[in-house]
Specification:
disulfide bond; single chain; four-stranded antiparallel β-sheet; two-stranded antiparallel sheet; Immunoglobulin-like; 93 residues; 0% helix; Ig-like_dom_sf
């Protein structure tokens, strides 16, 4: 996308210009989240894989956006995004 711009070929007395518009490929899930079970007090890791590396991910529980804290940790390595939930309780289901 960052290559979108106007390009010029200059030969001194004349110029030719063209506009390049790059259409980004949509980000898709290569591997979706899977259901997990965990014992109370333990930690659980939820993982998904995306079609495009380093795509920003927003983690949610129901309609609530999650933020990094002692409870929640987010990791992202290339196309793999992970949510680690520590000290799970029944309310985390």
């Amino acid at each position: 996308k960052s290559d979108s711009d106007t390009y010029t070929c200059d030969i001194g007395d004349a110029q030719s210009r063209a506009k390049l518009v790059v259409q980004e490929r949509p980000v898709l899930f290569k591997k979706e989240l899977q259901n997990e079970e965990a014992k109370e007090g333990k930690q659980v890791k939820l993982t998904c894989e995306l079609s495009k590396p380093d795509t920003p991910v927003k983690w949610m529980k129901g309609d609530t956006v999650l933020y990094a804290s002692e409870k929640y940790e987010f990791k992202q390595h290339g196309t793999v995004a992970e949510l680690i939930i520590r000290d799970v309780k029944s309310i985390d289901a």
